[in-house]
Amino acid sequence: MSSEADEPPADTDAPTPRRRRRRWPRVVLGSFAGLLVLLLAAGGWLYWRTDQALDAIPRIPDALPSMPENEQPPRAEGDALVFLLVGLDADDTAASGGDWEAGAARSDTMMLLQISGDRETASLVSLPRDTWVPVPGHGDAKLNAAYSWGGPALMVETVQDLTEIRVDHVALMDWTGFRALTDAVGGVDLAGQHMNGEQALEYVRERTSLPGGDFDRTRRQQAFLRALMRQTLSAGTLTNPGRLTGLLDTVDDVISVDDQLGNGELRGLAWDLGGMGASGVHFMNAPVAGTDYVEGQSIVRLDEAAAEPLWAAMREDRMAAFLDSDRAPEELGTDVR
Fold this sequence. Notes:
This protein is of the alpha/beta class and 337 residues long. The protein has helices at residues 17-56, 145-163, 178-184, 197-205, 214-232, 235-238, 241-250, 263-276, 304-315, 319-323; strands at residues 59-60, 81-88, 109-115, 122-127, 132-135, 139-142, 169-174, 188-190, 193-195, 255-258, 281-285, 288-294, 297-302. A hairpin with a 2-residue loop joins β12 (288-294) and β13. The termini are far apart.
């Protein structure tokens, strides 16, 4: 019969299961805490770098009309926002937020961008630069002459009078600057090929060899913006520190905005567009009745009857339903060449 004295002594050095169970949560929590610190540090760095980039974007003084509120169209309903994007295809100071000079440059591209109040969709409508319109204080002329005569404020006023849509903010885009931005994100896929910045710039500038002239050029510009947005939001850009840094360092060479647009609003705009993705942005051209000649110059006449339902849908923040109707303009396809 055995006794307690006959039992082997306990191995006090051997770890017990209980001690393992206590130690495992500490390992997990420690690893998680370390990961959290790294993520917060990366997030802080990214926030700081983004704020630096937004601070560097030039602000344009007096870029919006100065007339009283009751002399301008009412703002879009709800929380919808309307931007006027003005493209300049010139190496001038106006494209980078410098002082505008009368007659120094004409705008090459005009696009109305409406972002829905629920931030689910955005609609971008191109206005032909040769559209024949009344320019306040100057009589009838081509739309792009408004920028030459009175800078961003007169361009905004002219577009507002044409569409009866209130413009909340204006942005000047320098097509030449997009060359560096395209390279910063690793190029874009356009017309069945991968293009670098120089190739993309040639693509959006070409006009004379295109069957539709300026109309086809506008489609190319829209296709480029769509491709650039897709590439910018891709994992290959957002998870690549070099590309992300290059993107942030290049933004101020591409765009300048009105001085009423703060960093918080710009960050919110980027967040909203990133959330909806390229598939949530609808590209189209304003309805056109045809071309004509006035005083020896070729002009474009808008189809006012077809355009009015479009302008009304943008004003009333019901673009999603309008685009599903048979009155909507044809959207940009995937076969742009």
